[in-house]
Amino acid sequence: MSRALPLRKSLLVRLLITSVLIALCSVAATAWLAVQTTTRALQEEQGQVLADDTGILRQLSGYAATHPDWSGVGKTVSALAERTGRRIALTTPDRRTIADSAPGRTAFPPRAAAVVDPLHTDTFTEPGAQVNGIDPRAVGPYRLSPAERDYVRLLAAKRRRCFTANGLETAVRQLPSGRSVLTDPEGKSAGGYVPTECADGRLNTPTATEAKALDALTKRVTACLDRHHVAASAPWAMTLDFTSTGIRTKYLSGKAGPDRRSDASGQTTECIDSAHREQLSPYVAPVAELFLGSADSAVPRFDMSAANKAKVVGVAGLVLALTVAVTAVVATRLVRPLRALTQAAQQPPEQHVRVPITTRDETGILAMAFNELTERRERMEAQRKAMVSDIAHELRTPLTNIRGWLEVTRDGLVDPDPELLASLHEEALVLQRVIDDLQDLAAADAGTLRLHPEPVRAGELLEQVSAAHRVGAEAAGVVLRTRVDGTPWLEADPVRMRQALGNLVSNATRHTPAGGTVTLAARREGDQVVFEVADTGSGIAAEDLPSVFDRFWRAEKSRSRRTGGSGLGLSIVRQLVAAHGGTATATSDRGVGSVFILRLPAAAEPAPSATASDDG
């Protein structure tokens, strides 16, 4: 009777659930990877665009810092556009075109990308930053003459040699104004520590050009302070601060008096900055707006609109549907033979149903094993029926004889003389022998056959068996011989081994004609003791050899139990040898004779004291 299988335990349902989970994980992982990859690509593209834009702004700001107008900027704009692949346009604040790399009247983007003003930017030291600063390349009246450049360069080289002699590594760098300065290995100004012998005060002293520009700047600053009614409480003067990136103006003043206002320093700084820009203004180009790209140029971005989301959901749903469909087809093909096996296993045992083998995979192997199991069960069932029939046959005849003689004796037809009693006793012995053999086989099958192993000498075992069967062999006209090579020992139950060898000798004697020979032999081969019982009888057919150890098997079916035995002797031999951890085999040549071979584990020869005590 079939039992209902819960859906959660169904192989088909579990395969479907597993495939859906795998598909969901795959879709999620793929979507995540696509988003991450796309985002990274866009970030890299945007970073490259930003780097290009900063480079464009920096170069145009440098042009404005070194030219009083934009008249020759067209070539620079065209070169930048060709190198970056971007549309570049410069306009005045009121949108009059100064230079444009695009042909015709291409529309500008809605907003300017940056304002090019070298007096209010810091793209040289911090690319891309739009802070309130002056481009260091805007030097104006502070630009040294060729002679001054050579002079300052010689002073810088001399100081560098002095620094080197004092163990300080420096390098000479020329500023946009043409002044040479010393820098440390990191590229920073080397004006921190100066050895005494190197401090001649000449390198950082303003040249005539710089001094003239400082005087003009001082006048502008003084006028600014006067306009704001700021009076210095101590003398002050303008000077230059030389760094690795340019020159900066600063003022020097004495110690402030107690009546100085707190905002005087801040106002002075503002006046210096404004005066410096006014001084540089005639030397730099006017303010311009920078446009990059055209009005219809799209900014790269990741658009997760409703349409894109619908596409993602649709593709994910399609993948899931295909996964479920394919899994259902595959799972159905996998489950079909399993269901066939289940139905075959649920049939009545006597039908011995077999299943067709349709595949060569694990399921096909399982079906093949099931069919082999069915065949073995069918053979065992046939053997069981045959054994029951044989047992009934073996017991029926002696019981029938005993019953018949007892009935005729009871009716007074036969006198209970000694001859009759001897016949009844013989039949009772036949019954007892069959029952004892069956009991031994049942104990061996159940694993309850008791053994009492002890060290046994193979030669002594053969002598005991030969002595027990010599009289019967002589009565049958058969010569019984023994042969032992060496002194092999084994650990075995001597009673059970005598029973096994005795069954072989009895069987050989029955099948050997008068004048024949039965030989018992023993020898050691490696870690085994080999017993052989050979006869010169009629032999066994080759097709019957695999069945000689089966129960109730007889070489000649016509033999009676009185001449052919019960058919259990050889089966008992195999069971007893197997209980000792050995094997039993047989070889035979038709018309020549048979040899039964027993192989059992060998044992070391016991110590002499143990042997003596056993003999005593």
Brief digest:
This protein is an alpha+beta fold and 616 residues long. It contains 13 helices and 15 strands. The strands form four sheets. Strands 9, 10, 11, 12, 13, 14 and 15 form a seven-stranded mixed beta sheet that branches.
For the CA atoms, what is the radius of gyration?
Answer: 59 Å
Oligomer: single chain
Number of helices: 13
Most strands sheet: 7 strands, mixed
Average pLDDT figure: 78
CATH class of the largest domain: Alpha Beta
| Full CATH superfamily name of the largest domain | Histidine kinase-like ATPase, C-terminal domain
CATH fold annotation of the largest domain: Heat Shock Protein 90
Shape: elongated
Structure description:
The chain is of the alpha+beta class and 616 residues long. The chain folds into 4 domains: 155 residues, no CATH class; 144 residues, no CATH class; 82 residues, Signal transduction histidine kinase, dimerisation/phosphotransfer (DHp) domain (Helix Hairpins); 165 residues, 2-Layer Sandwich (Heat Shock Protein 90), CATH 3.30.565. 49% of the residues lie in helices and 14% in strands. It contains 13 helices and 15 strands. The strands form 4 sheets. Strands 9, 10, 11, 12, 13, 14 and 15 form a 7-stranded mixed β-sheet that branches. A 4-stranded antiparallel β-sheet has the order 2-1-8-3, with helices on one face. A two-stranded antiparallel sheet has the order 4-5. Strand 6 and strand 7 form a beta hairpin. Helix 10 runs antiparallel to helix 12. The radius of gyration is 59 Å and the shape is elongated. About 4% of the residues have low confidence.
